[in-house]
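ok so dumb question maybe but i'm new to this and my supervisor (M.) told me to 'just get the structure for MFS transporter' and walked off. so i did the thing. is this what she meant?? sequence i used:
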Amino acid sequence: MSVTEERLVGGYSGRLLLAISVGWAFIQAGRLVVSPLLPEISGQFGLSPTEEGLTVTTIWFVYACLQYPSGRLSDVLTRTTLLVAGLCVIAVGFLVFAGAPTYLVVLVGAVLVGFGAGLYPTPARGLVSDLYVERRGQAFGLHTASGDVGGVIAAGLAVATLAVASWRGAFLPVAVVLLSVALALHVWSREGYHVESVDLEVRATARRLLGDPGTRRLILAYALYAFTWQAATGLLPTFLRRSKSFSPAIATASFGTLFVVGAVVKPVAGGLGDRVRRDRLAPAALLLAAVALTGVVLASSELAVTVGVVVFAAGLMSYPPVMQAYLMDTFPTESMAGDLGGMRSLYIGLGSLGPTAVGFVAGRADYAVAFAGLAGCLLVAVALILTGE
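this is what came out, is it supposed to look like this??
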């Protein structure tokens, strides 16, 4: 496929990139809006800090478990089959979450959200790789940036919902948009649907991923990144409100800043990764994030904390498009989505423990100590990437 045919806007490739990116944006919006609403959810159900973290961890852990099966299935079936199914399941999950009368039902909704979300991103990234070769870094940058647009939407939803309704009102518009994207993919995709029994080839994939020491180091480094990302996005507003005495509005705005910055830097980082060595650019991004997060923990003024959050976001959000394009370059074409899914299951599964771990440490010490530990995780990840070359 030529650069001309690999259209980022318009044409068949551009339409599908738009659809899957809007879907990813609103999946992220629905999951991430839980974070700024968590103090209100906690207040209604009387949750401890560990239970607050467990709510976020449940979504991410189930999501992680589905990464490999969804990738392998989309290699054998069709990307559209997995994408449409995931959008429908997660829409139902958000509705259950919103209507939950007890904390146990909140967790049931979280499981459904994690399940539906888990079916989606690996086939979506597989589809991006199917559609783009020469402009793959740019396409990944735009697609992953859509998730950060979702974070901005989440912050806006949280502010609007708390101003006019209870926390439950944030999830209905998300479900409506996701079902609309499922319809768009049904109409636009040329793939159609295909269902059959599939050998997941778990052992073969595990050998490819875990048999090479360099790949094992990358998995561990990405797990530490995911641990930090999930903890930070899940509990940053709570940290700012309880440790820095930010108002709910300012804490939510700072949370939204993560994703405003991400939406800008991800396409830039993805394009830069097409021109320079990705294995150098990725650790540089993590190092910047670690230094900035240390500054956030140590800073006392509202301005200094806000600047630190912006720089932290720039480093943290530059990493995924660079590293994911690098990984796609190294995986065999015939098992590309399955291998990415297997790796995502490992690093997101390990990373899903981040919110619970931070909640646990915060409950026994404070949030500043917990977030300082996240900066240490990023520094270890940098060392793993650089020493694994």
